[in-house]
């Protein structure tokens, strides 16, 4: 689905979203309210320019439109792997973007992430995955690291990782597995405008992803470990 088609389905009341060098920005009308929109398209890698553009758009929304909901449309192949970006400190730029999303949430903005095409590695972590809640379309491609790359890093044979991925969503890509782990709140299959309105109405500033992962059986230890750290207690086996 193109971002234009997606925007028309999300905002039947109209929108002014525009694209410039694969960066999306603007606003849309849904359920009688204005939503600020930022995002990316064409699987663009997140380099320092787009990271700064997204951060600037979020800060401008916080400054000029207190409390306005923010929708992050995600389509990225991850952070840009260039010597120039690494030397300029791409990690700091992406951390800045993540901090801006966190600031918006703390200032009372409902921040919703929507993966409509591709979401990989750091480009996803510092945008949609750090939002108040993240959703995806059924055809979305989501993974933090592909199994071949994971095999190279961990020195575990790819065949073994493929076997583990059949039962453990931590190793497996796809929106269904991220739903099980609590990374996604839901998968939107139809009536996108209504789904967005519902997501905005139910957005919670508290991060409930660990609890979702535990309830859905895809991430069983994150919540108990966090609770043990908070209380100084012990982790109870799942």
Query: What is the rounded distance between the termini?
Result: 40 Å
Q: Could you name the CATH topology of one domain?
A: 2-enoyl-CoA Hydratase, Chain A, domain 1
Mean pLDDT: 90
User: What's the architecture of one domain in CATH terms?
Assistant: Alpha-Beta Complex
Write down the overall geometry.
globular
Low-pLDDT regions: none
The H/E string reads HEEEHEHHEHEEHHHEHHH
What structural class should be given to the helix and strand makeup? alpha/beta
CATH class label of one domain: Alpha Beta
| Main pleated-sheet profile | 8 strands, mixed
Strand content: 15-25%
| Helix coverage percent | 40-55%
What's the alpha carbon Rg, rounded to whole Å?
18 Å
């Amino acid at each position: 689905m193109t971002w234009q088609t997606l925007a028309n389905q999300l905002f039947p009341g109209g929108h002014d979203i525009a694209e410039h060098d694969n960066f999306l920005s603007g606003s849309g009308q849904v359920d009688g309210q204005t939503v600020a929109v930022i995002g990316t398209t064409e699987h663009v890698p997140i380099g320092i320019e787009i990271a700064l553009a997204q951060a600037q758009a979020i800060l401008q929304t916080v400054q000029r439109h207190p409390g306005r909901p923010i929708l992050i449309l995600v389509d990225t192949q991850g952070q840009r792997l260039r010597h120039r970006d690494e030397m300029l400190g791409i990690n700091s730029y992406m951390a800045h973007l993540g901090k801006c999303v966190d600031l918006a949430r703390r200032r009372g903005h409902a921040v919703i992430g929507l993966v409509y095409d591709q979401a990989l590695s750091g480009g996803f972590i510092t945008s949609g995955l750090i939002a108040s809640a993240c959703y995806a379309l059924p055809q979305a491609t989501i993974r933090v690291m592909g199994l071949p790359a994971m095999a190279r890093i961990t020195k575990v044979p790819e065949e073994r990782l493929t076997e583990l991925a059949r039962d453990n969503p931590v190793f497996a890509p796809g929106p269904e597995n991220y739903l099980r782990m609590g990374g996604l709140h839901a998968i939107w299959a139809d009536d996108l405008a209504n789904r967005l309105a519902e997501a905005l109405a139910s957005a919670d500033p508290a991060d409930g992803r660990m609890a979702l992962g535990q309830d859905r059986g895809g991430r069983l230890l994150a919540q108990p470990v966090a609770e043990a750290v908070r209380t100084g207690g012990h982790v109870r086996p799942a």
